[in-house]
Design brief:
The chain is an alpha/beta fold. The chain has one domain: Carbon-nitrogen hydrolase (Nitrilase/N-carbamoyl-D-aminoacid amidohydrolase, 4-Layer Sandwich). It has eight helices and 14 strands. A six-stranded mixed β-sheet has the order 5-4-3-2-1-14. It has a six-stranded mixed β-sheet with strand order 6-7-8-9-12-13, covered by helices on one side. It is globular and about 70 Å long. Bound molecules: 4-methylsulfanyl-2-ureido-butyric acid (CDT). The site of 4-methylsulfanyl-2-ureido-butyric acid (CDT) has 10 residues, from loops.
Length: 339
């Protein structure tokens, strides 16, 4: 029996600063209804799907930004989305800003803010939660930038790792599900940690500007989409997994987000791609047995990985300069030498 799940990337057009949660939830519900008419079993919504991408807005007092965060999930505003999903029996992935009362590593109970996504099954139960690990941007107002990117100000680094759960989704009794959020997709380490848990379907949402606002040099616009797709396609191929990557798109608070949501198979091929900068549903039938070829041949991790030669990946953060060659440089340095 093939293991087939029909999935959708539910791309959202722009959400402006003044748009309420109700506006966003209404639009997501319309997309979910459309998904049901196409036999979709899992719908993936973008990163921070309930509001505009607020890290572009500066609040000197971080507490003033609390209005952008959800204090409970489901909340009053998102309850109708959960109810519709239950009624239609559709699972969904939702990205949102999470405000939690939680103890930190020192044991003190305090407000903690995360860029979070959850996977909700067709009965409305949360089966997996992930908190974004790779937070791009900066923590302080940067006068050199035309648009701020204050994720490092508003969010803590996620403390849940990259979890994978085997859960019944749609008509299948068990799928190995994992999540990432936006910038995570550019880091092969994140994909591999999911791959090492046998992930079969990665869901992720993103908000990516069409222009690189970091004033550090010119980047051609078309390369922004290319790099996003390159990262997702490589991650899916190298870890023999499907991936659903859903954007927020269009001009939001005067800032353009490039969209181009995609669904990718374990060969790294794009199965479906959004073409608008608006609310748009793209779908694909994913035969999860396709994951087997990669993971039993080229990417049979248990046969071919050599973690003893990868120690730099966990022991070092920034790059270090290599030794400068001279006639006396030994040619047989051990690859595990960190010095
Ligand atoms: N949301 C998010 O992570 N966006 C980043 C933009 C990086 S520019 C500071 C991304 O990697 O797409």
């Amino acid at each position: 029996m093939p293991r087939i799940i029909t999935v959708a990337a539910a791309q959202l057009g722009p959400l402006q600063k003044a748009d309420t949660r109700q506006v966003a939830v209404e639009r997501m519900m319309r997309l979910m209804e459309r998904a049901q008419t196409r036999g979709v079993e899992l719908v993936v919504f973008p990163e921070l799907a309930l509001t505009t991408f607020f890290p572009r807005h500066y609040h000197e007092d971080i507490g003033e930004a609390d209005g952008w965060f959800e204090h409970a999930m489901p909340s009053n505003e998102t309850a109708p989305l959960f109810a519709l999903a239950r009624k239609l029996g559709i699972a969904f992935h939702l990205g949102y800003a999470e405000l939690a009362e939680e103890t930190d590593e020192t044991g003190s109970l305090r407000k903690r803010r995360f860029n979070t996504s959850i996977l909700v099954n067709g009965r409305g139960e949360i089966v997996l939660k992930y908190r974004k690990v790779h937070l791009p941007g900066h923590a302080e107002f940067d006068p050199k930038r035309k648009v701020q990117h204050l994720e490092k100000r508003y969010f803590e680094v996620g403390n849940l790792g990259f979890p994978v759960i085997r859960a019944p989704i749609g008509g299948l009794s068990g799928i190995n599900m994992g999540m990432m959020i936006c910038n995570d997709r550019r880091w092969p380490e994140a994909w591999r940690v999911l791959g090492l848990q046998g992930v079969e379907l990665v869901t992720l949402g993103y908000n990516t500007p069409s222009l690189n606002m970091d004033a550090a040099g010119f980047e051609a616009h078309h390369l922004r989409v290319f790099h996003s797709h390159l990262s997702i396609q490589a991650g899916a191929y190298q870890n023999a997994t499907f991936a659903v990557a859903t954007a927020k798109a269009g001009t939001e608070d005067g800032c353009e987000l490039f969209g181009h949501s995609i669904i990718v198979n374990p060969q790294g091929e794009i199965m479906a791609q959004a073409t608008s900068w608006d609310d748009e549903l793209i779908t694909a039938d994913c035969d999860l047995d396709m994951c087997t070829l990669g993971r039993t041949t080229i990417f049979a991790f248990d046969k071919h990985r050599r973690p003893e030669t990868y120690t730099r990946i966990t022991e070092q953060i920034g790059a270090v300069e290599p030794p400068v060659w001279s006639r006396d440089t030994p040619t047989h340095r051990r690859s595990t030498d960190l010095a």
